[in-house]
Amino acid sequence: MTELDAEDAKLVVLARGAMGRAEAASGAAVRDLDGRTYAGAPVKLDALQLTALQAAVAAAVSSGATGLEAAVIVVGPADDAGVAAVHELSADAVAAQLKRLAAMPLEQRRQVRGLMPERASTIVAGTAILAELMGHLGAERLTVSERDILHGAALEAADQPA
Q1: Which domain holds residue 113?
Q2: What is the pTM of this model?
Q3: Which of 24, 31, 44, 53 has the fewest CB atoms below 10 angstroms from its CB?
């Protein structure tokens, strides 16, 4: 089993706490770009249905989070519908990330969780290009993928769905 750092372990504790308080079958927690954390349990009302992760993301977004740094689901499916929301960034979130990354010295960017250290020297330029492109295209949101263009090209060549 992989050892979690203290901040990620805190997310697991928060998710378990939400699960226990709601007496639910699953729980989730997220951490925003400022390090604030939010937890949630499934919502099952006649008028509203949310997975635990969707509830945690909704709590973060409604509290002003512009992006998410980490998410954890406890006793929930890996294909939780809330995963799409974790990978979604608004144009405002891209601008906030650009401002945050540009303000950091290179050595500090190399320590950013989730950023490959060898990309620390180019991430500001890449994020600036992304922000400009989104503005030029009038795009309000984008979906971040952990797969690259080669993955899509391979699936297309094999005539497989993404």
Answers
A1: 88-157
A2: 0.64
A3: 44
Domains: count for the chain? 2
Q: Are residues 103 and 70 in the same domain?
A: no
Q: What is the pLDDT along the chain (162 residues), one digit of tens a residue?
A: 567 778 888 999 999 999 999 999 999 999 888 889 999 999 999 999 999 999 999 999 889 887 788 888 998 777 777 777 777 777 887 888 888 899 999 999 998 877 788 989 999 999 899 889 888 888 887 777 655 555 556 666 666 665
Same domain, 48 and 93: no
Together in a domain, 14 and 77 = yes
CA 38, 41, 42, 44 dihedral sign is: negative
* Rg of the chain taking only CA atoms, in angstroms: 17
Give the 3-state secondary structure of the chain: CCCCCHHHHHHHHHHHHHHHHCCCCCEEEEEECCCCEEEECCEECCCCEECHHHHHHHHHHHCCCCCEEEEEEECCCCCCCCHHHHCEEEHHHHHHHHHHHHCCCHHHHCCCCCCCHHHCCCHHHHHHHHHHHHHHHCCCEEECCCCCHHHHHHHHHCCCCC
